[in-house]
Amino acid sequence: MTAIENTPPVFPERALASKAVLFRPLQDIDIYVEDEGSEVFYTELLKRLIGRDARIATVVPLRGRDNVIKRAEEYSDSRPALFLIDGDLHWVAGLALPTLPHIYVHPCYCVENYLFCEDAMIQIIVENQGTIKDSDVKIALDWKTVRDRVETLLVPLFIEFAAAFALCPDIKTVSRGIGCLLRDSRKGSPPEIDELKVSAVRQEVKDEVIARVGTDAYDLKRSLIAGQIKALKDPIDAISGKDFLVPVQMFEAGRAGGQKVQRKSFVFRLARHCRLDKMQALRQKLLEILGPNKAMEASA
């Protein structure tokens, strides 16, 4: 028996924005995002966030940050609409961000940063196993150690990436991916970040920036960015959730739960179980776009 493939229709780029029209009878607001393939988990997050205060049936991906910003600039419809973009290295580096009324920049590297959550990890591992208690998973997961290691190793790396992006944006940074940072492991053992490889990449990026702009310009920019990240309530927000944090969570789910996870279902389940504390500003923006009546109803 063959598996049923549930592949959504592919829209040509010129028709992407009009896709929202198809869903208007089912939702109170049109929401546009960057990445195709993110619709299911993104919609789950937003439906949980807004609850019964509005109907959200889907989000519409526009295939890239620039397309979302361009569409937001052109938007003149009276219908409620919100255009969501990731902070990316622009946000980490403290560069100028769009300030259009219908646009919302996630106050972190990307939407997947909201998924970096102990509660969600515990719930997923418990569901996968079906034979162990939450309290036992919590001990096995040891989330504080996971967080501390991620912050210690990856925040300094992303400071280097942000400095490079601000001074020499063509230097390869986040696109290197997490693979180049992993320790050579034995077959069957979970992947693990290698401190020496992280240091090597940091040094490589630093050397290339200094070779182009000089030590003084590099030191000044790096110092400013490091100060900004240190001031964040959670410096881990400066790390790419999509390319670095989600893979780390997959490694840790495998280690603590003893089972491999598939990325798409794992990300969806993180979206279903994660805490929503960090998303309250987005909830307020949604209510603002929906109009004062919705905002008053939600606060009543």
Query: Overall 3D geometry?
Result: globular
Q: Name the poorly predicted regions.
A: none
- Look at the helices and sheets and give the structural class: mainly alpha
Q: Mind telling me the C-alpha Rg?
A: 21 Å
Helix content: 40-55%
Summed up, the domain count is 2
Number of helices: 13
Biggest sheet features: 4 strands, parallel
Head-to-tail CA distance between termini? 52 Å
Task: Write a structural description.
This protein has helices at 19-23, 39-50, 65-74, 88-92, 118-129, 134-141, 143-167, 195-213, 215-230, 241-257, 263-273, 280-290, 292-299, and strands spanning 30-33, 60-61, 81-85, 103-105. It is mainly alpha-helical and 300 residues long. The chain has 2 domains: 13-112 and 279-299, no CATH class; 117-273, no CATH class. The chain has a 4-stranded parallel β-sheet, sandwiched between helices.
Quick rundown:
This protein is mainly alpha-helical and 300 residues long. The protein has two domains: 121 residues, no CATH class; 157 residues, no CATH class.
